Amino acid sequence: xxxxxxxxxxxxxxxxxxxxxxxxxxxxxxxxxxxxxxxxxxxxxxxxxxxxxxxxxxxxxxxxxxxxxxxxxxxxxxxxxxxxxxxxxxxxxxxxxxxxxxxxxxxxxxxxxxxxxxxxxxxxxxxxxxxxxxxxxxxxxxxxxxxxxxxxxxxxxxxxxxxxxxxx
Length: 168
Known about the structure:
Low-confidence stretches: none
């Protein structure tokens, strides 16, 4: 091949040339550009942008974030309950932080139930009730998000796949 031709070009000659004899190329030679194709088979991949799947992925991400914060609050409230059950020192900085952090969540439910106690241990029923209620509220918000923003597919079909065919 000549050095000025690209590698993916193929020389086609209409002359009767033996493969063992060298002949000069005449005017009957033409150059044809073919796309690079694997010798055994080629693969075609169609990519379809699916906006419904993208929207569902975003909703799933929001759902996970909401459940993360709900779980974080529930864990801190569980620490509050454990600290009161085991008579933790309220002058301790961490115990004081947990009590101050959970007060806005627990305070609305103070006095609904009596707090059973034995000796110095107290079961904070308001914190237990707040944990259950926050979980229910989080579930309701997540469910409402899915009901409002998840659009059904309306009977259309989509497919993404790879197609393979043998080269002839």
